[in-house]
Amino acid sequence: MPKIQRTGLPRELLRHIHERATEREISRESLEQVLFWVVSNPTVPDGQWFKRFDGVTLCGNGPLILTVLDPGMIAVGTEVS
User: Fold this and answer.
1) What is the pLDDT at residue 5?
2) Which sign, positive or negative, has the C-alpha torsion 31, 37, 41, 42?
3) Is the separation of the CB atoms in 57 and 75 below 8 Å?
4) What are the strands, taking DSSP E only, across the chain?
5) Residue 69: beta bridge partners?
6) In the chain, which end has fewer C-beta atoms inside a 10 angstrom radius, N or C?
7) Contacts of 70 (CB under 8 A, 6+ apart)
8) How far is CA 28 from the centre of its chain?
9) Which pLDDT value is given to residue 66?
10) Contact 69, 75 (CB under 8 A)
11) What is the C-alpha to C-alpha distance for residues 55 and 71, in angstroms, rounded to an integer?
12) Which residues contact 4 (CB under 8 A, 6 or more apart)?
């Protein structure tokens, strides 16, 4: 199982994640929860996955984080514990 990729990310992907977090008004506290989880070097499934936090759901595919969702939005893939 892959680890979250934290370096060498495409600028467009980073811009997309930032735009979604801004437009969905994801709180700083929620984003900090995501950051702490990412820096813990978690393993994630191959393929689509998601991880729920208070106030945000993180979605990815393999080692890449692809977007953030509001808690009420439907995520696709395997839920990461």
Assistant:
1) 96
2) negative
3) yes
4) 48-53, 56-61, 64-69, 78-79
5) 57
6) C
7) 24, 26, 56, 57
8) 14
9) 97
10) yes
11) 6
12) 38, 41, 42, 44, 60, 63, 65
pLDDT at 34: 95
Average pLDDT, the chain: 96
- Amino acid (1-letter code) at residue 42: P
**pLDDT for position 54:** 93
Q: Which of 50, 62, 64, 60 is closest to 7 using CA atoms?
A: 64
Q: Which residue has the tokens 């070097």?
A: 41
Per-residue pLDDT band at 23 (split at 50, 70, 90): very high
Q: DSSP character for 40? A: T
Residue 18, C-beta contacts closer than 8 angstroms, at least 6 positions apart: none
Q: What percent of the chain has pLDDT over 70?
A: 100
